[in-house]
Amino acid sequence: MRRGTGIGAIKNKNLAQARYKDKGSEIAEDQFSQMTKQMEVFKTNLEEFAAKHKDDIRKDPQFRLQFQEMCASIGVDPLASSKGFWAEMLGVGDFYYELGVQIVEVCLATSHRNGGLISLDELRDRVVASRGRTSQDISLDDMMRAIRKLRILGNGFTVLAVGNMQLVQSVPGELTMDHTNILQLAQKSGYVSHSQLLKDLKWEDERSHRALDFLVKEGMAWVDDQDSTERLYWFPSLFPAASAS
After folding, report:
1. Mean pLDDT for the stretch of residues 142-164
2. H or E stretch including 232?
3. Are 239 and 190 in contact (CB under 8 A)?
4. pTM for this model (two decimals)
């Protein structure tokens, strides 16, 4: 009898668990359905908001940033395509693709001077100058979004955080932490020396020469032998932004 009672109890327990599982699945499906309906309402409201404020979104960089963040919060990417509702309504897709082309043009035009490494601030200043005074204003956030779109071109466009600066690398080739450390060290004066790397970074001779030689070879650093004490390595990308005119 005890064995039969035990088997019955197990069966009842399994049946209860099955019912709980079915009920749980039903609740989960209902919640998912409700969330889907809410998301559709959010997207509809977002489209209505975009239609109402499209001029502000196009012309005001700060307002455009807030709009982008609002879109991201519900999983909408108005930059996903240059065609469709968002492009037709706002032109934001076309705006960022056009900005991306202008970024490429400036990077190509300045690569002979900086080796394909330019500060984000200088890049923005030069792009703004190339667009003309009548064009809509662009922010650093706009620049970053357009650069991310350029990743489809391969590894040629990368944003590097160096100290308190952001540098845009527009040529293929990955910079190592050694190269980044040198750039960070050069931020104060725009140049470094071999002895400075040995002293401040505690590197050995071979490591220092290898990293500096790479940066010179890639055109990111210029050699200056005019100093009477030792060779200096200057970085055009860290020079104060020159006039973009």
Report:
1. 81
2. strand 232-234
3. yes
4. 0.63
Contacts of 225 by beta carbon, 8 Å cutoff, 6+ apart: 231, 232
∠ at Cα 124 (121, 128), nearest 5°? 140
- Distance (Å, whole) CA 195 – CA 239: 21
Element (H, E) at 185: helix 177-185
Cα three-residue angle 165-168-171, rounded to 5 degrees: 145
Burial degree of 207 (CB within 10 A; 0-12, 13-18, 19+): middle
Q: Which is more confidently placed, 158 or 91? A: 158
Task: Give the list of residues 6+ apart from residue 106 with CB closer than 8 angstroms, or none.
Answer: 118, 123, 126, 127, 130
Separation of alpha carbons 86 and 51, rounded Å? 10
pLDDT digits (tens, 9 = 90+) for 48-99: 777 777 777 777 778 777 777 777 776 666 655 445 555 555 555 667 778 8
**Type of residue found at 224:** D
**Token pair listed for 13:** 């327990």
pLDDT in tens, 193-202: 999 999 999 9
pLDDT band at residue 245 under the 50/70/90 scheme: very low
Terminal alpha carbon distance of the chain? 97
